[in-house]
């Protein structure tokens, strides 16, 4: 990645454009309407006009529907991807909050992140606060064939990636089978490079979305099972070996376990994350035995996150 990208967050091309989709939607609707009219079978005078067979079903939700809805919806925005969230109301993909900070939506990436057969879209939102720039990627889950006036998508309020000036850099968010692959470079506690040079913690991980106790959470599936949202680095990297930790992939007690019983792991304290710990749940970093065996330089870059308590 060039030094320019590390220092100033630049637009990132994506398969779906917020404004582009909004402009194209009416055209697509007209084309589809013409096609359906031209291909419709001859009418049957004897058929009931109110029969189920003659009532057209709602069209399947598309990535364009999801993006169009999100571009005019109220978002939940968590500073740094971990702090207490607040609402931000968007109009045509842009917003201004009460403090004068501006927000803009980037191009989304479509995938079926939760495996329900309905298109979902990961959309980056960039906050500009003076010289500060923060970009978070949120997944919006498509709603299957919503009725008129009903939401076409639901926001997963836990971002899956973050990028900031003099902080972490996201090279790419791409669709994979069942979710997203995130290619990122983390700024580690011992990095001494300047802002333009970026960090040294190269990491690629894959995430999907699971509903646990009715709430949608991002869950990491590769390189190992873990929390799929923003996972910060420990400020000290001074771990404690534990063989009895109860580690989960998400805050609820019913979330999947990510560490096998009796497996030795190294645990790390993390910065405060009220978005994730408001109910008293413990949020921590960990390294498995396999990761630790690769040596300190590699293992520092491959710390993952989980919950307990």
Write the layout of secondary structure elements.
Elements (H helix, E strand, L loop, with lengths): L2 H5 L10 H22 L23 H8 L3 E4 L8 E4 L4 E3 L5 E4 L3 E3 L8 E10 L2 E11 L10 E3 L5 E4 L4 E8 L2 E8 L14 E12 L2 E8 L3 E2 L12 E3 L22 E5 L4 H4 L4 E7 H4 L3 H6 L2 E5 L1
Antiparallel strand pairs: 1-2, 3-4, 4-6, 5-6, 6-7, 7-8, 7-9, 10-11, 11-12, 12-13, 13-14, 15-16, 16-17, 17-18
Helix pairs in contact: 2-3
Task: Report on the architecture of this protein.
The chain has 309 residues and is an alpha+beta fold. It has one domain. It contains 6 helices and 18 strands. Helix 2 crosses helix 3. The longest helix has 22 residues. The N terminus is likely disordered.
What would you say about this model in short?
With 309 residues, the chain is α+β, with helices and mostly antiparallel strands. It has helices spanning 3-7, 18-39, 63-70, 274-277, 289-292, 296-301, and strands at residues 74-77, 86-89, 94-96, 102-105, 109-111, 120-129, 132-142, 153-155, 161-164, 169-176, 179-186, 201-212, 215-222, 226-227, 240-242, 265-269, 282-288, 304-308.
């Amino acid at each position: 990645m060039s030094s320019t990208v590390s220092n100033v967050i630049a637009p990132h091309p994506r398969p779906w454009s917020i404004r582009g989709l909004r402009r194209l939607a009416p055209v697509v609707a007209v084309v589809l309407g013409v096609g359906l009219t031209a291909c419709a079978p001859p009418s049957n005078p004897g058929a009931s006009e109110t029969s189920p067979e003659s009532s057209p079903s709602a069209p399947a939700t598309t990535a364009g529907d999801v993006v169009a809805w999100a571009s005019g919806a109220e978002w939940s925005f968590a500073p740094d991807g971990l702090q207490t969230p607040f609402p931000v109301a968007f109009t045509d993909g842009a917003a201004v909050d009460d403090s004068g900070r501006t927000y803009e939506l980037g191009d989304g990436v479509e995938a079926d992140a939760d495996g329900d057969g309905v298109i979902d879209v990961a959309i980056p939102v960039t906050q500009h606060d003076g010289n500060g720039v923060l970009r978070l990627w949120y997944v919006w889950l498509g709603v299957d064939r919503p009725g008129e006036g009903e939401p076409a998508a639901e926001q997963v309020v836990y971002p899956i990636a973050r990028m900031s000036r003099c902080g972490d850099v996201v090279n790419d968010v791409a669709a994979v089978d069942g979710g997203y692959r995130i290619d990122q470079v983390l700024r580690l506690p011992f990095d001494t490079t300047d802002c333009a040079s970026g960090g040294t913690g190269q990491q690629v991980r894959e995430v999907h979305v699971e509903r646990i106790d009715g709430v949608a959470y991002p869950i990491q599936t590769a390189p190992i099972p873990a929390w799929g949202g923003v996972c910060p680095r420990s400020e000290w990297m001074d771990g404690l070996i534990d063989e009895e930790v109860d580690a989960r992939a998400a805050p609820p007690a019913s979330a999947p376990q990510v560490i096998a019983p009796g497996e030795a792991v190294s645990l790390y304290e993390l910065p405060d994350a009220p978005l994730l710990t408001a109910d008293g749940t413990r949020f921590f970093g960990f390294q498995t035995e396999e990761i630790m065996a690769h040596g300190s330089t590699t293992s520092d870059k491959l710390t993952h996150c989980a919950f307990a308590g």
